Amino acid sequence: MPDCIPKTARARGKVAPSKMAHVVLRTNQYDEMVAWWKTFLEAEPLHANPFMTFLTFDEEHHRLAIARGANLAAKVTSSVGVDHFAFAYASLSDLLSTYVRLAEQGVRPSTSIHHGISLSFYYLDPDRNEVELQVDAFPSVEATNAFLADGPFARNPIGVLFDPEAMVKRWREGASDAELLRPLEGGVPDMRTAFAEH
Predict the structure, then answer these.
(1) Does the global pTM surpass 0.85?
(2) For residue 77, is it within any domain?
(3) CATH code for position 123
(4) Contacting residues for 35 by C-beta, under 8 A, at least 6 apart
(5) How far, in Å, CA of 56 to CA of 106, rounded?
(6) Mean pLDDT taken over the chain
(7) Confidence band of 2 (pLDDT split at 50, 70, 90)
(8) DSSP string, 121-145
(9) CA–CA separation, 162 and 115 (whole Å)
């Protein structure tokens, strides 16, 4: 098996950022976007004014900022740019309980997919920015890297679509995390239809 454990920039003798700090979204729907993201991330504003809100859910002063724009064109999904960004959860229970909380408030994923290395829900905010909520499928970096190196990921780098309600039902019935996170069997989805709403 090839050595596929990535070396950090520091281990390669390079200077690089210590972390990714935040994302800023510019919008015509300022109040709607602030409310949606507060709900979505269980975030609180550290600072807010009529033009910008800094939202955080951890020790960072802001992980996401919403900036008020004026006369902005609607998002064009067929153009180049950022595809999506993702937030990781510490456990499958945290991810699935978040799915349930959001679903109860009418916020449902546009796509649910098991990538093999992660179990992921994709959502669209009011401006149709795509955001992924995910949990790692393997208990260690070594196990993840082995999955990547052994070929299953090369054969299907997208993953397998799944029914989130069926997943939640199995979770509530006591299925183990290992069972629920096991990579799913199935063909590569047609991404033109799997992500058609995007």
Answers:
(1) yes
(2) no
(3) 3.10.180
(4) none
(5) 22
(6) 88
(7) very low
(8) EEEE-TT--EEEEEEESSSSHHHHH
(9) 10
Residue 54 CB neighbours (<10 A) = 20
pLDDT digits (tens, 9 = 90+) for 12-25: 888 888 888 899 99
170 vs 57: CA distance, rounded Å = 29
Query: Which of 4-13, 112-121, 183-192 bottoms out in mean pLDDT, i.e. has the lowest?
Result: 183-192
113 and 188 share one domain: yes
Q: Is residue 75 part of a domain?
A: no
Q: Is residue 114 part of a domain?
A: yes
Amino acid occupying residue 176: S
Q: Which residue's entry shows tokens 């098991």?
A: 114
One domain for residues 63 and 111: no
Q: Are residues 117 and 41 in the same domain?
A: no
Q: Is residue 160 part of a domain?
A: yes
pLDDT, tens digit, 9 for 90 and up, residues 57-111:
998 888 999 999 988 888 887 788 888 999 999 999 999 999 999 999 999 999 9
Find, among 100, 99, 120, 101, the residue nearest to 111 by Cα. Answer: 120
Burial tier of 172 (Cβ tally within 10 Å: 0-12, 13-18, 19+): exposed
Number of domains in the chain: 2
